[in-house]
Design brief:
By secondary structure, this protein is of the alpha+beta class. Helices cover 52% and strands 8% of the residues. The protein is built from 13 helices and 4 strands. The radius of gyration is 24 Å and the shape is elongated.
């Protein structure tokens, strides 16, 4: 037996607290949810994320589980339990009970791992030195939001499995996009996402388009690439969030369509962006 295990087993136990990893059935999860008397409002998007991970086979036994107080009140794990019920699947889940009621104040209060952190730790293909794979992961999330429809999903509610599948399947395109858009203000997830999507349908056109967006020398003022370059520079202060990502992606689509059609582009204003439909 490892020395650290012996050290844990020989340490003074915390009085009363117990824990056990079990295969949690939907019936057990439903029973535990009856103890959910004092908690945050249940987020259906978070539940949906956990359900997707269960269905993708991405749910693993971990130290994150369910906590119950000495009084029999659910302190932690309502979203995991609700996902088990909704998925109608049995999954491994850690249960800890007889915790102090005040423990709830300290749950989920520290820094959480980003998708990039999760992918790096799990050794996802494509997470490597030589290109900005962190921006690539963020762009993959934007692509997933675009495909699902902005407004119906947020970055936080996307399942890790969904973003990972997009990142792996579009690895070459995302690498092209992050290398092409490697300087500010172009180094932003929505622009990288647009470049990767364009590269996936026409790599040669994407090369010609984005090379000049980043370096719009010798372009006329009515060239779609020039107009997009100016728009990106002028709108660097938009901030973040799903609505802003949608606007940035839509501006790119508008300019790309003008370029591919060989049409002049005199502006990329609010009206043009709002005309864009989900592709």
């Amino acid at each position: 037996m490892s020395a650290w295990i012996n050290a844990i087993l020989s340490a003074q136990p915390f009085p009363g607290a117990c824990s056990r990893m079990v295969m949690c059935t939907p019936e057990l999860a439903a029973m535990m949810l009856e103890l959910n008397k004092r908690n945050r409002k249940l987020s259906e998007s978070v539940v949906g994320k956990y359900v997707a991970e269960i269905e993708f086979g991405e749910w693993y036994a971990s130290s994150a589980g369910v906590g119950v107080s000495e009084e029999g009140i659910l302190l932690d794990g309502q979203h995991r339990l609700a996902a088990v019920v909704k998925s109608e699947k049995t999954v491994p889940l850690l249960f800890v009970w007889n915790l102090p009621a005040m423990a709830q104040q300290k749950i989920d209060r520290q820094k959480k791992r980003s998708l990039f952190d999760v992918f790096t730790l799990s050794g996802v293909d494509g997470i490597a030195d030589g290109w900005n794979s962190r921006i690539g992961v963020q762009a993959a999330a934007v692509i997933c939001m675009h495909r699902r429809g902005f407004g119906t999903v947020t970055t936080g509610s996307l399942s890790d499995a969904e973003v990972k599948a997009c990142f792996v399947s579009m690895g070459a395109e995302l690498m092209f996009a992050t290398k092409k858009l490697c300087s500010n203000p172009f180094k932003s997830a929505p622009y990288v996402a647009a470049a990767a999507l364009m590269a996936g349908s026409d790599a040669e056109a994407a090369e010609k388009f984005w090379e000049k967006v980043v370096r719009p020398t010798e372009l006329s003022a009515d060239d779609a690439r020039y107009r997009l370059s100016r728009w990106i520079i002028e709108n660097t202060g938009l901030g973040g969030g799903g609505d802003v990502q949608k606007v940035r992606l839509s501006a790119c689509f508008y300019a790309i369509n003008k370029f591919l059609a060989g049409e002049k582009c005199f502006s990329i204003g609010k009206s043009e962006v709002l005309k864009m439909k989900k592709k």
